[in-house]
Amino acid sequence: MRIEDLLRRNAIGRPDETALICEERTMTWRELDEAANRLGNALRQLGYRPQERVAVVLSNCHHIPVAYFGLWKCNLVNVAISTKLTGPEIRRILVHSGASAVICEDPVAAEAAAGVETVRHVFSVDGGVPGPHRCPS
């Protein structure tokens, strides 16, 4: 059984129960599954293929499980990057990992991704990152 199957099972079996709490934000199992599906479907529509690497540069909040489950549902590889790193450190990881997308909330990560040859898209989870793409979570 894959971990994203557990999410789907909970979304079907207890859809309205709380799945997570992050400060004032709560999500039910259904909401978490639907948000992960939106992200996964958006990535597929943009042409992301199984085993491509996607960097996730997020602080500890509800966006992390949405991003992880969305990536797992597409069989994409998560490259977890700490938000405490500097721009050059993030850039080094992006280059070394071959990440083809970045999901972030901070302009530092978006700036670090600029000019990295393999990065096709930078997604913002809260609109705090300048650019045309907003993460569909």
From TrEMBL:
A Pfam family matched in the record: AMP-binding
Domain AMP-dependent synthetase/ligase: 8-126
SUPFAM superfamilies recorded: Acetyl-CoA synthetase-like
Protein name: AMP-dependent synthetase/ligase domain-containing protein
Highest taxon of source: Bacteria
